[in-house]
Amino acid sequence: MARTYAERGEDVGLLARRLDRLEALRAELTACPKAGAVEVGRLDVTDFDAVPVAIADIAERLGGLDRAIINAGIGKGASVGTGNARANIETVQTNLTGALAQAEAVLEIFRAQGHGHLVLVSSIAGERGHPGAGTAYAASKAGLSALGQGMQAEFPNGPIKITVIKPGYIETAITDGLKTPLMVPLDQGVKAIVKAIDRAPREAAVPPWPWAPIGAVLRHAPDEVTRRLI
Question: Which residues are part of the catalytic machinery?
Answer without folding.
Answer: 137
